[in-house]
Amino acid sequence: MRLLIAYDGTDFRGWARQPEVRTVAGVLEEALGRLVGKPPHLSVAGRTDAGVHARGQVASFPAPGHLDPERVQRALNAMLAPEVVVREARWAPQGFDARHSATSREYLYRIDTGPVPDPFDARYVWHRPGELVVSSMRTAAGHLVGNHDFASFCRVPGRQAGTVRTLRTLTVVSKGDRVGIRAVAPSFLHQMVRSLAGTLAWVGDGRIDPDAMPGILAARSRGAAGPMAPAHGLTLVRVGYGRRR
Amino acid sequence: MRLLIAYDGTDFRGWARQPEVRTVAGVLEEALGRLVGKPPHLSVAGRTDAGVHARGQVASFPAPGHLDPERVQRALNAMLAPEVVVREARWAPQGFDARHSATSREYLYRIDTGPVPDPFDARYVWHRPGELVVSSMRTAAGHLVGNHDFASFCRVPGRQAGTVRTLRTLTVVSKGDRVGIRAVAPSFLHQMVRSLAGTLAWVGDGRIDPDAMPGILAARSRGAAGPMAPAHGLTLVRVGYGRRR
Predict the structure, then answer these.
(1) For chain A, what percent of residues have pLDDT higher than 90?
(2) A101 neighbors A182 (Cβ within 8 angstroms)
(3) What is the pLDDT, as a whole number, of residue A156?
(4) How many helices (H) and strands (E) does chain A have?
């Protein structure tokens, strides 16, 4: 069964189940366990870190055929909403796996450049007072789109099988005090989006030249890029299951 | 000194200072007390109830002339943001009083009619699944605008000096699953906006005919109108200090 999930990541230590701490998978699997007898293992498209949010997370689990998706949705929401909301539950084609079947992930990183934070979304937006030059950020983003070795934007490159990824989209939009960075790729390295966002913020405030990006990529060293932006500004927006490109 | 304030009302028992409970005025006055030696009394434009939010609340207090407004803003935000944010602090003309000088208050009541709540604004929006017929709500609102006795939309009419008010604006806007009710008046009765919102919701779902409004006003009885909408959907948006009309 396939679940489309939104959550406020503020009070979770990320997605992945861990002993002793509160995680999104932990509370979902426990709630599912009450329905099906035994907590199933959820496969998930985006293993979000502590504090990261999701609007369009997708998870799947092997479910007994008699289970009604609408009942699953209703029961999970009764236990977990509005912190974790199942937006949709449905049967998936044979062989569907939320993680392995996914062909793209889309993230949005949000920055509030205004002088004071906004109480209504301070938990979802990085408050970073001071103007950002969006045109510079766009120039930098243009250098980063494509197929590259993103080792400079990955927290612990050694722990992953290769650091080459295809960044399909990296756009910067702004409206009033808000700047949004949208990133789409078949898959990302660990903390890659936050490293991209932190680096683009340094480009926006003039600390890094936008045309330094090719050199930063070539350095293949985390120290070459800008800082990692805080987790709470990041939201997993959408997971794609179209054809692989 | 005049303060422009935004707050998330979720964890407050309203604006007004009360012993033993956490209120917005309570935390602000205490924080100001640390700056000026003794907690001042804040005059406020809108005494919001428990759970009600504000984007553009205005408060004022008598401040010693050597106090720097920017320092007040910085210090209060350092202590209270992002739950309570001072958006602006400045000197006001002699005789200014946030409550008595105000000439209009504008409130926004928000409803989410979608099937499941949204984790990112569930605390600021009344989640009420099921379609609302906005055109009917607008017809009803048209009957309510103007100078009327609003006793039917007031929680405890007996405790206030008169129940006649001039509702200058009552508009209903909708976008996707969201319905917003905007109300502007020189002043409102206690819980009047929430009573208007609850009544308009009953109009929207067909339980009350929009053309029943004149009769409901004439009844001058709280029981004649619809229910009171929950506090957390309400936000004080703006306070006006223009000429009295």
Answers:
(1) 93
(2) no
(3) 73
(4) 5, 11
Mutate to test the interface with A, among B7, B83, B116 (most CBs of A within 10 A): B116
Contact A124 B124 (CB under 8 A): no
* A residues 25-44 closer than 8 Å to B (CB): none
pLDDT of residue A221: 93
DSSP state of A225: S
Whether the predicted model's global pTM rises above the 0.95 cut: no
Is the pLDDT at B161 greater than 80? The verdict is no
Q: Is A140 helix (H, G, I), strand (E, B) or coil?
A: helix
Taking a contact as any Cβ pair under 8 Å apart, which residues of chain A between 65 and 84 contact chain B? 73, 77, 81-84
Q: What is the ipTM of this complex?
A: 0.89
Burial of A109 (0-12, 13-18, 19+ CB in 10 A): buried
Which residues neighbour B98 within 8 Å (Cβ) at sequence distance 6 or greater? B2, B42, B43, B44, B45, B58, B59, B60, B239
Which residues in chain A are closer than 8 Å to B5, comparing Cβ atoms? none
What pLDDT score was predicted for residue A159? 56
Q: Which two tokens stand for residue A86?
A: 């199942």
What is the count of residue pairs from A and B with beta carbons less than 8 Å apart? 64
